[in-house]
Amino acid sequence: xxxxxxxxxxxxxxxxxxxxxxxxxxxxxxxxxxxxxxxxxxxxxxxxxxxxxxxxxxxxxxxxxxxxxxxxxxxxxxxxxxxxxxxxxxxxxxxxxxxxxxxxxxxxxxxxxxxxxxxxxxxxxxxxxxxxxxxxxxxxxxxxxxxxxxxxxxxxxxxxxxxxxxxxxxxxxxxxxxxxxxxxxxxxxxxxxxxxxxxxxxxxxxxxxxxxxxxxxxxxxxxxxxxxxxxxxxxxxxxxxxxxxxxxxxxxxxxxxxxxxxxxxxxxxxxxxxxxxxxxxxxxxxxxxxxxxxxxxxxxxxxxxxxxxxxxxxxxxxxxxxxxxxxxxxxxxxxxxxxxxxxxxxxxxxxxxxxxxxxxxxxxxxxxxxxxxxxxxxxxxxxxxxxxxxxxxxxxxxxxxxxxxxxxxxxxxxxxxxxxxxxxxxxxxxxxxxxxxxxxxxxxxxxxxxxxxxxxxxxxxxxxxxxxxxxxxxxxxxxxxxxxxxxxxxxxxxxxxxxxxxxxxxxxxxxxxxxxxxxxxxxxxxxxxxxxx
Length: 533
Hints:
Layout: H1 2-11, E1 17-19, E2 22-30, E3 35-45, E4 48-58, E5 67-70, E6 74-82, H2 95-136, H3 147-199, E7 206-215, E8 219-229, E9 232-243, E10 249-260, E11 266-274, H4 297-308, E12 334-336, E13 341-343, E14 349-359, E15 362-367, E16 374-382, E17 392-398, E18 401-408, E19 416-432, E20 443-445, E21 449-460, E22 466-473, E23 483-489, E24 494-495, E25 503-510, E26 515-525
Parallel strand pairs: 1-4, 2-11, 9-17, 15-22
Antiparallel strand pairs: 2-3, 3-8, 4-7, 5-8, 6-7, 9-10, 10-14, 11-12, 11-13, 15-16, 16-19, 17-18, 19-21, 20-21, 21-26, 22-25, 23-26, 24-25
Helix pairs in contact: 2-3
């Protein structure tokens, strides 16, 4: 028993004292959603066991993802993360906070002095007016006063009233300047409060971390704490500028937009941006069968009745867009910003410049007469930068003019992309349906056949030749009973464009003032007793 008691005494400190420690964020790794924060905790250790308390951590920290490491000679024991009944916070101010607080105090003193000055002037006015009123109310009583004495009294009252009125006027003359000084003091106080609010952290729920450490020797020591926060993220942003004067050129100006609402400001931190997706989809999507069929008209009516009686409709789940992952560190791209940055919590979005890429595009005018009245400029280019272009919002400029905005998809090195840069008002499109003798416009139809004829026209009213890429479509079928055929004059340059069945393309050069026409006829045939759906 004595041996066990002795071992227990050796293994357990009698009392662990609490060390005063300062902490600050040194670096942050930001993902598209969430961030990993690294915090350094500095303290002076003496030999033995101690407790280090960090009372001002964000409450949203996940204890399961919190990690600790210590400098040599310091051992880490048990630690606890508390979000309720917190220890008293350490009262400390940064230099900017202390300066802003002092400015607010000075502005408040100046405003109080200005208000006191106005009160003093109003008191002078009231005193003078009261004196004048008293003198004016003076009356001679009885008949004891001689005419000379009455004259002397009236002169005294008159001079006294005059002096009081003049004193009141003089006091009122000082009032505008005093009110102006008061208004200036109020504006100065308002500005000082805005400045103070900008440097003070937002009021937020906090968590406190208590760490048991054991130091071998007396020395300056530190702990490194890493934790994750969810309310942070970054995204690429682009300015895509197409210049056609002096040769076609596409300039891609890249930027990175960082924001966070973690509950604490990031001040002068080393910033790393990562394409890793800790909360992204981790398993493949599910595909659902897609059945296409021909049915009898009676079955259509039955299905409509059944549909009306159904309370809920099951839909295929919509998945998030593909996550960007490109080899840089494994399959993750890492961007490290070269200098320390500040990112205030919930108050700003920080844009960082990320360089410029210039490529030579291939320009076409894409025309879809079935949908649009004009053609659109499209720049086809290859990413020759050797770097991946991540998905992000992009502003579009053509010859210095803002055209609109788009979303740039992921573009790996060597990959190709098409970016549209607005309409060409001088390239006019029409899709005409010639009138038939039966009265239908462009369409002949019977119980088992439907024929459509369309004329596609492009007219060039600009002063330059344009390479035209014209698109239209014909229906397609995967059923033997539904036969579809088409005829085009001239024939399309490409069929099933980009693997899309029934999409046709014509490529040609259209000179200034020229017009071209394409005739497209489509025929659908099916067995008697069936309906087209």
